Q: What sequence folds into this?
């Protein structure tokens, strides 16, 4: 079985903040009350990281990550996301390929992304980026968080390899 992580609308651990102007929040195994995140930014012809969601994880038993993002509104915006492994200093250890929607389509978008074998003591990050889709001067997209339509399904933690020796 895999473990489902839900992007939240708050950052409770204050680790690995992505930077000024970027929404940085947690991934959590609890769902919470549904809300939306709206990105409304000046136009840019290159992709810009707008939101990150992360959680500390133990080593994973697999490399396949299912992603679902519920896009509730979009105007002249391309959107893409990927999963990343980041270290304790918030540096990127590994990244999956991007799942890209040009332009962003309203509705639930699902993808399966691959991330290399996991290192214990690192964090899982969902990174969401946007780009101006046409020459309209801004990027605007809204997606849901804290609900059953936006999530990351990660492989199970690696089973313990400890040996128990019974002495009689």
A:
């Amino acid at each position: 079985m895999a473990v489902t992580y839900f992007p939240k609308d708050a950052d409770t651990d204050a680790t690995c903040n992505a930077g000024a102007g970027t929404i940085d929040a947690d991934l959590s195994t609890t769902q919470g009350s549904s809300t939306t995140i709206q990105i409304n930014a000046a136009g840019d012809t290159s992709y810009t990281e707008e939101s990150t969601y992360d959680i500390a994880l133990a080593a994973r038993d697999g490399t396949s990550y299912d992603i679902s993002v519920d896009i509730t509104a979009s105007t002249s915006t391309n959107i893409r996301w990927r999963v990343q492994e980041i270290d304790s200093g918030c540096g990127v250890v590994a990244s999956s390929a991007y799942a890209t929607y040009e332009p962003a389509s309203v509705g639930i978008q699902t993808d399966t992304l691959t991330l290399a074998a996991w290192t214990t003591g690192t964090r899982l990050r969902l990174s969401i980026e946007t780009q101006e889709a046409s020459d309209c001067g801004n990027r605007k997209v809204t997606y849901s968080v804290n609900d059953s339509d936006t999530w990351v399904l990660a492989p199970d933690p690696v089973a313990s390899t400890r040996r128990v020796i019974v002495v009689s």
Notes: The CA atoms of residues 1 and 40 lie 37 Å apart.
